[in-house]
Automatic annotation (TrEMBL):
It catalyses: thymidine + phosphate = 2-deoxy-alpha-D-ribose 1-phosphate + thymine; 2'-deoxyuridine + phosphate = 2-deoxy-alpha-D-ribose 1-phosphate + uracil; uridine + phosphate = alpha-D-ribose 1-phosphate + uracil. It is an enzyme of class 2 (transferase). It comes from Megasphaera stantonii. This is Pyrimidine-nucleoside phosphorylase. PROSITE patterns: THYMID_PHOSPHORYLASE. One of its GO terms (cellular component) is cytosol. Coiled coil: none annotated. Catalyzes phosphorolysis of the pyrimidine nucleosides uridine, thymidine and 2'-deoxyuridine with the formation of the corresponding pyrimidine base and ribose-1-phosphate. Residues 344-418 form the Pyrimidine nucleoside phosphorylase C-terminal domain. GO terms for molecular function: 1,4-alpha-oligoglucan phosphorylase activity; thymidine phosphorylase activity. Its EC number is 2.4.2.2. It comes from the Bacteria.
Length: 434
């Protein structure tokens, strides 16, 4: 008897039919299936898994549970970019204006940060006057006019995913590759993209702890994209250490401006080049990865990416007069810690630094928490760099009244300096899945 038979089929390891999956999602979204039944079904999926075809049907059912954004009035291949969530990850702020400057339209909906990872929407809101919430017609018009707009999720995107995610969170069923893959891809498909480039992260600071699991998740999402006729590619990246050097919202905007001005860090620019090249490839503007990477380098060197960033900030009501002249970050207190040893940076515990920045007010523990855009941590070194005693290691930006010396001491304990050059530094990018 419906829906018990659908739960039993998955419990017994059967492959569900397209009809079963769509009916289950439609009925649950409409309130015709109880939470305890959906929870049992999720646990069966968690334990038994799903084929690529089942996962694609689940994705499509969740995508169609609410609004589907219609980007067809924008000419060209609309390419979306998504990261599974990182620390010091400003890639979107850098790569979106770069590929837009090359003629790939970017009509992107970005999330807010939760927990120790940041969200692009919060970063942009650090810019005075910036409006992250635009009516849909204005959003579309801006992309048609200048090739780039970034807003928070508008309308009712994938409500089935919202309901199921809350249930997963409460029932120990979050860490399932088909459930994560369908959750992410349903929102991308409902957001109207023609093609998708994913940054799938692994490591201490990521959802996926191992490279192997990140690869499986990426493979599943790329397969869903193909089956849903949305060309999808995934870059597998390490989150063993922060990607860039800035943790905190206004600091990350400053880092993006630096990167667009040709002063980006090694690890960050490696990811920008790889993601940018894939976006140019699927967007039909580059013929090969090498050509795409060269185009990204040229757009940075010519200043065209930075010009597009300024144009975009102004279009959404933000102040752009500071760009290229001074830093955006103005915190009440600053404290710079210097290194007491000589050697090499062998570890930077990204997750711990993200948690410290969050506790200072850079992120939210709960959805409704306010954010302080000016607080955070700016590192002066990357993983593998050499350092000498007396060189600055990081600057802490704090609220009035914060115990800076105490926080700095805690941060310092998460940056490991050893006298020996490390014999292996995990490469940032391990693979590109197509
Ligand atoms: N991000 C999502 O959007 N969904 C998941 O299930 C996990 C990460
Ligand atoms: Ca680690």
């Amino acid at each position: 008897m419906w829906p018990i038979d659908c739960i039993e089929h998955k419990r017994d390891g059967k492959v569900l039919t397209k009809e079963e999956i769509h009916r289950f999602i439609d009925d649950y979204t409409a309130g015709r299936i109880a939470d305890y039944q959906a929870a049992a079904w999720l646990m069966a999926v968690y334990l038994r898994g799903m084929t690529a075809e089942e996962t694609t049907e689940l994705t499509m059912a969740m995508a169609r549970s609410g609004d589907i954004v219609d980007l067809s009035s924008i000419p060209g291949v609309k390419v979306d970019k998504h990261s599974t969530g990182g620390i010091a990850d400003t890639t979107t702020l850098i790569v979106a204006p770069l590929v837009a400057a090359a003629g790939v339209p970017v009509a992107k909906m970005s999330g807010r940060g939760l927990g120790f990872t940041g969200g692009t929407a919060d970063k942009l809101e650090a810019i005075p006057g910036f409006r992250i919430e635009l009516p849909e017609d204005q959003f579309l018009q801006q992309v048609r006019r200048m090739g780039l707009a970034l807003i928070t999720q508008s309308g009712d995107i994938a409500p089935a995913d919202k309901l199921l995610y809350a249930l997963r969170d409460a029932t120990g069923t979050v860490e399932s590759i088909p459930l994560i893959a369908s959750s992410i891809m349903s929102k991308k498909i409902a957001s109207g993209a023609d093609a998708i480039v994913l940054d799938v992260k692994y490591g201490d600071g990521a959802f996926m702890k191992t490279k192997e699991d990140a690869r499986k998740l990426a493979r599943m999402m790329v397969d869903i994209g193909r089956l849903a006729h949305k060309p999808t590619r995934a870059v597998i990246t390490s989150m063993e250490a922060p990607l860039g050097t800035a943790i905190g919202n206004s600091l990350e905007v400053d880092e993006a401006v630096d990167a667009l001005s040709g002063r980006g860090g090694r690890r960050l620019m490696e990811v920008v080049r790889a993601i940018g090249a894939q976006m140019l490839l699927v967007g039909g503007k580059a013929g090969s990865e090498a050509e795409g990477e060269q185009m990204i380098d040229d757009l940075v060197a010519s200043g065209k990416g930075l010009a597009k960033f300024k144009e975009f900030v102004k279009a959404q009501g933000g102040s752009a007069s500071w760009i290229g002249k001074r830093l955006l970050t103005k915190a009440p207190q600053m404290f710079t810690a210097v290194c007491t040893d000589e050697g090499y940076i062998t570890e930077i515990h990204g997750r711990a630094l993200g948690e410290i920045a969050m506790a200072m007010g850079a992120g939210r523990a709960r959805k409704e928490d306010p954010i302080d855009p000016m607080v955070g941590i700016r590192l002066f070194k990357e993983l593998g760099d050499s350092i000498t005693a007396g060189e600055p290691l990081f600057t802490l930006y704090g609220k009035a009244g914060a115990d800076m010396a105490c926080i700095a001491q805690e941060i310092a304990s998460h940056i490991i300096v050893q006298s020996q050059r490390p014999d292996h530094i995990e490469p940032v990018i391990s693979e590109i899945i197509t």
